[in-house]
């Protein structure tokens, strides 16, 4: 059984992003980039399924610039068996990535596709759902537990009222939530081993996919600066201010 895992190269979660002065986007010059944290969880889950003997091959896919190779090497250092880079310099929106992944699902025929629930750069939370629709596959989003046996995946999801458990027939699409697992540290020997694993590069056109953006970003702006807080002398003043100034009680 094969698992396809989508890994996106994003601005590292520790970096404080800066908006470009012309408001056209986020400044990516000299910024540390890493694998999207939810995708690390996705790779870890796929590798754990392989370690349990449920899965035989873990294939990592990344779409974007040539440097996404580094993201794929990290996935292979965690334990993915091979990588596919769908290389393009074009701006990629979730629909384009979902179309690329659909083409790869057709080609690779995985039993399970695992994606992060959202990319921390665009915060779209769309790609997994779009892929499931395009490929006509069952989906379970925001997974906090995944069990695979006998051609089905049993997925626990964290929903507002508690936990929901779904049973999906494979092949299926699963997206990861934060509590699914804690990804392992990547060790130096595994980084060295990952360098020798196969990495194939294709272009979106080779897969017959047009990745032209369908949505235009009009402007990107920093959030408004928060004004400084004040100290109140006692509870009575606090309650009065909440009533008359903040008008929240
Ligand atoms: P999004 O819908 O953009 O929030 O992304 C959700 C998930 O889709 C991510 O966590 C990744 O697993 C996958 N994904 C999105 N963009 C890419 C990309 N360029 N390359 C590989 N995977 C991606």
Automatic annotation (TrEMBL):
Residues 23-211 form the Electron transfer flavoprotein alpha/beta-subunit N-terminal domain. Keywords: Electron transport, Transport. CDD domains: ETF_beta. InterPro entries: ET-Flavoprotein_bsu_CS, ETF_a/b_N, ETF_b, ETF_beta_N, Rossmann-like_a/b/a_fold. It holds the Pfam family ETF. Belongs to the ETF beta-subunit/FixA family. This is Electron transfer flavoprotein subunit beta. It comes from Ideonella oryzae.
């Amino acid at each position: 059984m094969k698992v396809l895992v989508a890994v996106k190269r994003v601005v590292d979660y520790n970096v404080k992003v800066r908006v470009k002065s012309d408001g056209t986007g986020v400044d990516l010059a000299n910024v540390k980039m890493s694998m999207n944290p939810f995708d690390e969880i996705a790779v870890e889950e796929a590798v754990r399924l392989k370690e349990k003997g449920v899965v035989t091959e873990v294939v990592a896919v990344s779409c974007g610039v040539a440097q996404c190779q580094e993201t794929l090497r990290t996935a292979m250092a965690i334990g993915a068996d091979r990588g596919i880079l769908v290389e393009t310099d074009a701006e990629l929106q979730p629909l384009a990535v979902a179309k690329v992944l659909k083409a790869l699902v057709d080609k690779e025929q995985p039993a399970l596709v695992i994606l992060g629930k959202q990319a921390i750069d665009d915060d779209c939370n769309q790609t997994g759902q779009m892929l499931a629709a395009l490929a006509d596959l069952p989906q379970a989003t925001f997974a906090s537990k995944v069990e695979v046996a006998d051609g089905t995946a049993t997925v626990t999801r964290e929903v507002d009222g508690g936990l929901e458990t779904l049973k999906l027939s494979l092949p299926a699409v699963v997206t990861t939530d934060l509590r699914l697992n804690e990804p392992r540290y990547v060790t130096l020997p595994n980084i060295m081993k990952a360098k020798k694993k196969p990495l194939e590069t294709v272009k979106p056109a080779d897969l017959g996919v047009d990745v032209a953006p369908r949505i235009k970003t009009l402007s990107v702006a920093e959030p408004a600066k928060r004004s400084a807080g004040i100290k109140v002398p006692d509870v009575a003043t606090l309650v009065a201010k909440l009533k008359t100034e903040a008008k929240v009680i």
